[in-house]
């Protein structure tokens, strides 16, 4: 029997609560399927670790997870530590060196969940946002001079490389091609940003020729926000730069009913390094320790993890269990307007996995 080694990194805030729930559900699923198992290694990296050791993860941290089959991540962010330290010290310190350049964010209105858009369901809103995850506005290039002086200046330089754009475009076109509508929207801002975004557009047009069966269009990012709200049914697969997709994916999650259900995969498609799966909601310190965090974002991320491992049947079984649970308002956590706790939603999901005879 195949045993998958998973590195669990809960991180901070509600990350610890939802990753524990995710591990429980994955164990139950493996037991139900019977054809594979998981061996979890837990790593206590994050804000509390930083307070003790002055770093978010140890120097050999990446080496210790380098050979795992996948990483299940909670969130990084701590009220006492500046956000750029928690982000660059843990999440980006894993994503960038492990070259997880394709960040995939599916958005769908799940059964039982109401979108703030009137009369929109999973039929009209079923998107996948592909976020370039290795460069662009998150390249980390820049600096500060004349610190503290009136002359002080600071830059954050967005870098796009032809190779980086080619690989994310190819990934996005391939993903669009695998979906029934074969429809891709390339988000850009090449009217105002006349260097890197123009390269982005040119590369998109070139890669498009490799995928004659995919219909694609180009959309300025500001207009894209309107289109997401006013014509959600016109969208299927979307590709955007790191920051554009960061912003669009929060809007997408809100339109799908809650940030609490939105999942992410940080993929190294070539599988030279492990890929990382996480809910997109962040550490949410305001509700930490209350036991009311929505674990569905983590469960859905676990579905993506299973798909990446090649366990398609198990992934589909977990997704069906999640949908059976969201369909019942009594299993809605407060972010969805309900009263359920993390533990109750977890138990309901495990019961749905066990009860299913498919
Ligand atoms: C996300 C998050 C992160 C990001 C934050 C936590 C830095 O918003 O995954 O979308 O901006 O990448
Ligand atoms: Mg974000």
How would you characterize this protein structure?
The protein is of the alpha/beta class. It has 2 domains: 199 residues, Isopropylmalate Dehydrogenase (3-Layer(aba) Sandwich), CATH 3.40.718; 126 residues, Isopropylmalate Dehydrogenase, CATH 3.40.718. It has 11 helices and 12 strands. The strands form 2 sheets. Strands 2-1-3-12-11-4-5-10-8-9 form a 10-stranded mixed beta sheet, with helices on both faces. The chain has a two-stranded antiparallel sheet with strand order 6-7. β6 and β7 form a beta hairpin. The chain is globular. The two termini are 21 Å apart. The mean pLDDT is 96. The structure holds 3-isopropylmalic acid and magnesium ion (MG). The site of magnesium ion has 2 residues, from α8.
Notable characteristics:
single chain; 358 residues; alpha/beta; Isopropylmalate Dehydrogenase; 2 domains; two-stranded antiparallel sheet; 11 helices; binds magnesium ion
Question: Can you lay out the helices and strands and say which pair or pack?
Answer:
Blueprint lengths: L1 E10 L3 H19 L2 E7 L4 H7 L7 H5 L4 E6 L7 H13 L6 E7 L17 E7 L3 E10 L7 E7 L2 H17 L4 E6 L7 H13 L6 E6 H10 L6 E4 L1 H14 L7 E5 L8 E4 L16 H14 L2 H15 L15 H14 L3
Parallel strand pairs: 1-2, 1-3, 3-12, 5-10, 8-9, 8-10
Antiparallel strand pairs: 4-5, 4-11, 6-7, 11-12
Helix pairs in contact: 1-9, 1-11, 5-6, 7-8, 9-10, 10-11
Bound molecules: 3-isopropylmalic acid and magnesium ion.
Summarize, please.
With 358 residues, the chain is of the alpha/beta class. Helices cover 39% and strands 22% of the residues.
CATH superfamily heading of the largest domain: Isopropylmalate Dehydrogenase
Tell me the count of domains.
2
Radius of gyration: 20 Å
Principal-axis shape: globular
Name the hetero compounds present. Answer: 3-isopropylmalic acid, magnesium ion
Helix content percent band: 25-40%
According to DSSP, the number of beta strands is 12
Major sheet, described briefly?
10 strands, mixed
CATH architecture descriptor text of the largest domain: 3-Layer(aba) Sandwich
Structural category: alpha/beta
| CATH fold descriptor of the largest domain | Isopropylmalate Dehydrogenase
Share of residues in strands: 15-25%
* Mean pLDDT across all amino acids: 96
CATH top-level class of the largest domain = Alpha Beta
